[in-house]
Every structure is written in structure tokens, then in C-alpha cells.
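Title: Comparing notes on inverse folding

I've been comparing how different people in this forum approach sequence design from structure. To keep things fair, I'm posting one structure and asking everyone to reply with a full sequence. Here's the target:
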């Protein structure tokens, strides 16, 4: 599974302070810990800064890429911020995210078609957040079709069924899992991705819920997740699940994790 490391997000107080102060070493330390824990992408989000988002996102791109040899997931609805960050990004970034909302779609489409990138496509219609599996699949099919018509290859698209908290509605986990399975079966070349921690929002023992949902999602066909790779129990559960659902040939990642002490939880 593709791991998109979530911790450099200005909604976290410590990150917001580090970005505002341009505390390079603090950001580098977090990026390196996530890379060492198994991240494939480092997510960068400074959306709380609004007027300064482009400036701070570019600073983060330069800061993180001088420290880790990984591509970045540029997380913003602001086309100006994304355009500026993509110009200085080394290699091919991931863009998070586009949706069917008219203004957002039209603003971001020129950005994601201007140069090669992976793009996260939300199962969000013009009118509302999805509630059912069918809502998610309908929106996902439409945006996948639109992006392909614009020349974006299916293997560059990651469709996000939009995980919603089970604390609000305990049906939400099943609805998201149903959508993940449907996409995996109908669009095998398109990846599925989710913001994992959304499932547990508002509840105690969030890490327990997160890791169990991750196992269920992986068995339903999830191919990428935005999560905390430094959560050792979470990563151990993922490595075990990958073996059991035949996603780890010869159990190589599981054995590597064991030899590195990652499974000793």
C-alpha cells in the first residue's frame, strides 16, 4: 500500500508554529521520521494560513525535499499555491485534491494538466457530501471519466471515497468500504485512497479504530492511505494484513519489518 505521511499539516499547533517561524530543523526532523517509518509521499498542508499559503507551501517543499528523497503530496484547494509549489517541486508530485464542485474543478484542472502529476479525486458532487456507497460510486465514476477525457492516465488517478466519522453515523465505515471495493473491481488501474484518521474522529482509542479500519479497507482493495507512518501499531497491522490478502509477495515487507523491529509492538 502507498503510504502518504500526514503529519506536516498546519492544523496541528506545533506545525503551524514551526511554519510561521520557519523552523527548518523541526520540519526536517518530522519529515525524516516519517520517511524512515515507511512513507512513500510526504503530505504538505498549510491551508490554515490562507493569505500566506503559497509562500509557506513553497518553503515547505524546499525544506522537506532538501532532507528526504521522496515526492510530496501538495494538499490545497488553492490553484495559486499549487501552481507555485509544483514549479519548484523536484520530480512528480501528487495533488490533493480535485472534485466535481464546479469552481474547484475548473480552477484546478489547468494545474493538474499542465505537468505530470498524480491527482487525488474526491467523490464529492456539486451539491453535497456522499452518504451512501452509491453516492460515492456515482461521483467517483463521473470524475474519473472527466479526468481521463482531459488526458490524465488512470494510473495517475487516486479516487477518495471520503471517509466520514463513525461517531456521527456508524454506517459510514461500511458505506466507504463498499465504495472502495466497487472502485477496485470496476477501475483496476485507478488507485483508491483515504484519509484514514477521519473514521475515528470524535471517539476515544482512535488509533485502535484506525488500524482496524485500515485492515478492513486493505482487504476491500484500498491501495493508498493518508496516515501517520510513525504509529508503529498501525504499520504493524498493515504489514500483517498485506501478507494475509496476498499483497506482499514472498512476505518480503513483513519480514523486513520484523528484522527492523517494527512488528515488536
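Reply #1:
Here's my take.
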Amino acid at each position: 500500500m502507498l503510504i502518504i505521511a500526514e503529519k506536516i499539516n498546519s492544523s496541528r499547533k506545533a506545525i503551524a508554529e514551526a511554519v510561521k517561524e520557519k523552523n527548518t530543523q523541526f520540519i526536517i526532523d518530522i519529515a525524516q521520521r516519517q520517511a524512515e517509518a515507511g512513507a512513500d509521499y510526504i503530505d504538505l498542508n498549510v491551508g490554515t494560513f490562507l493569505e500566506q499559503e503559497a509562500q509557506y507551501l513553497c518553503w515547505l517543499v524546499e525544506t522537506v525535499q532538501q532532507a528526504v528523497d521522496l515526492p510530496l503530496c501538495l494538499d490545497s484547494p488553492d490553484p495559486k499555491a499549487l501552481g507555485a509549489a509544483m514549479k519548484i517541486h523536484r520530480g512528480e508530485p501528487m495533488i490533493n485534491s480535485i472534485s466535481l464542485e464546479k469552481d474547484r474543478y475548473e480552477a484546478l484542472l489547468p494545474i493538474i494538466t499542465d505537468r505530470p502529476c498524480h491527482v487525488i479525486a474526491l467523490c464529492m458532487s456539486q451539491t453535497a457530501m456522499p452518504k451512501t456507497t452509491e453516492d460515492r460510486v456515482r461521483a467517483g465514476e463521473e470524475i474519473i471519466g472527466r479526468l481521463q477525457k482531459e488526458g490524465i492516465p488512470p494510473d495517475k488517478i487516486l479516487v477518495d471515497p471520503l471517509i466520514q466519522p463513525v461517531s456521527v453515523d456508524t454506517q459510514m465505515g461500511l458505506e466507504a468500504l463498499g465504495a472502495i471495493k466497487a472502485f477496485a473491481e470496476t477501475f483496476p488501474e485507478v488507485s483508491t485512497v483515504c484519509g484514514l484518521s477521519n473514521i475515528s474522529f470524535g471517539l476515544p482509542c482512535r488509533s485502535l479504530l484506525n488500524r482496524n479500519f485500515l485492515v478492513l479497507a486493505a482487504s476491500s482493495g484500498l491501495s493508498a492511505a493518508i496516515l501517520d507512518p510513525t504509529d508503529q501499531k498501525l504499520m504493524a497491522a498493515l504489514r500483517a494484513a498485506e501478507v494475509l490478502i496476498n499483497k506482499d509477495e514472498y512476505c518480503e515487507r513483513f519480514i523486513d519489518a520484523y528484522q527492523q523491529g517494527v512488528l515488536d509492538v
